Amino acid sequence: MYKFDETPVMPKGFSCASRNCGIKEEGDDLALFYSEKTAEAAAVFTRNLVPGAPVIAGREIIKKSKLQAVVVNSRVSNVGTGDEGVKRAYRMSAAAAKELNCNEDEVIMSSTGVIAVPLPVEKIESGLVGMKADLCSDPLIGASGIMTTDTYAKAISISCDDYTLTIVGKGSGMIEPNMATMLVYVFTDAAVSAKDLDTVLRVGVNKSFNMLSVDTDTSTSDTVIAMANGLSEKEVDLDEFQQRFSAACIRMTEMLARDGEGATKLLKILVEEAIDEKQAKIYARAMVNSPLIKTMAHGCDPNIGRMLMALGKCFDNDLDVAKLELIVNGVTVFADSVKTNFDEKALRQSIDSDEVVFQVKLGLGSGEATAYGCDLTHGYVDENAAYYSS
Question: Which residues of this protein are annotated with the site description Involved in the stabilization of negative charge on the oxyanion by the formation of the oxyanion hole (predicted)?
């Protein structure tokens, strides 16, 4: 278990800023992340078949594996805006490059918010003027400019003698494995090649963000970007770096799940003893995506039937009920094909907390996986029923 810094900080050579440029009526809606030196870079994007304009442009920009800055706006996602939307996305990066005096093709952009609304790029262009002077070392400042329905800004740092790794993220609704309305930016001063960074990023994402679900909806704007500027001048042990990177991604994943729209608790689904990791992920996702599991957790109800249902609907997968063991917050509730004799009142009290852990032992092999999610509440319905569309 790695210890995270008490106060997050941007790694050496990185800085950030945020401000209100007039897209939102109040609160910051524009963020800028900058490296004083061009960084090695890697990124993964949404698999949604209707990607946003920033994703379309970003896929081209990242091909060089070099970035010096990221510019992000919130409230308008620039999705469903046609060719003009792509042009406006590039105008966004051009304006940031001009302000920072760096190469336009080394600035990548992100947008998050409502869909099918033209991006007010003129406000972004005006807002970027003078923003370089606001750059600071506090990642929570940058995080404040990328929020939509998030209830707080999210940033974490993990440091060692050789380097610092910092993650800034947002994401509250429309979150399902394969990321979400989720924007995540990873910054490190470690010396890592673009090729190695890409590998580390994909492994980390598959263990964390791709195992996250708030509401089973996959966003059009998912983006995870990693930048390594090497200013620590320390070569890393790649295996150790991978472990720290993945641990940080998992910590951010848990933060995003806890702050899901209307959420009151984090759900962790640990599937063990599957035939392989692929099968373990199938069962973990089935559990974390189930509305009945989510409402069960919210109601503090150790309902075994809902757990059996969620697992049993994974057709074309091996499941031996005689070997199946279900554990909730450390209490075995199902084994040897039947419900166990557990203290239901005590377990209800245990579930009435900010974290519920479901452990599934399949008894079939050594495959394992963990999924992350949150409960489903009246707050989720209220927030999305009232969500603005223009």
Answer: 112-113
**pLDDT tens sequence across 345-372:** 999 999 999 999 999 999 999 999 999 9
pLDDT of residue 162: 94
What percent of the chain is predicted at pLDDT more than 70? Answer: 95
Q: Is 374 helix (H, G, I), strand (E, B) or coil?
A: strand
Give 3-state DSSP helix, strand, coil % of the chain, rounded to 5: 35, 30, 35
CATH number of the structural domain spanning residue 303: 3.10.20.340
| Position 8 in a domain | no
Q: What is the mean pLDDT of residues 41-65?
A: 96
Q: Averaged over 265-273, what is the pLDDT?
A: 98
Domain interval for residue 283: 266-374
Q: Is the pLDDT of residue 186 over 90?
A: yes
What's the CATH number where 137 sits?
Answer: 3.60.70.12
More confident residue, 221 or 322: 322
- Give how many domains the chain has, as a whole number: 2
Q: Is 46 annotated as a binding residue?
A: no
Q: What confidence tier does 274 reach under pLDDT thresholds 50, 70, 90?
A: very high
The answer to whether 278 is annotated as binding is no
Catalytic one of 181, 218, 370, 377? 181
Cβ–Cβ under 8 Å, residues 283 and 309: no
Task: Please say if 166 is a catalytic residue.
Answer: no
Residue 389: inside a domain, yes or no? no
Is 370 inside any structural domain? Answer: yes
Q: Is 390 annotated as a binding residue?
A: yes
Residue 384 lies in a domain: no
Residues 229, 309: one domain?
A: no
**Whole-angstrom distance, CA of residue 372 vs CA of residue 287:** 10
Same domain, 36 and 117: yes
Coil, strand, or helix at residue 289? helix
Residue 181, annotated as binding a ligand: yes
Would you say 339 and 246 are in contact if contact means Cβ atoms under 8 Å apart?
A: no
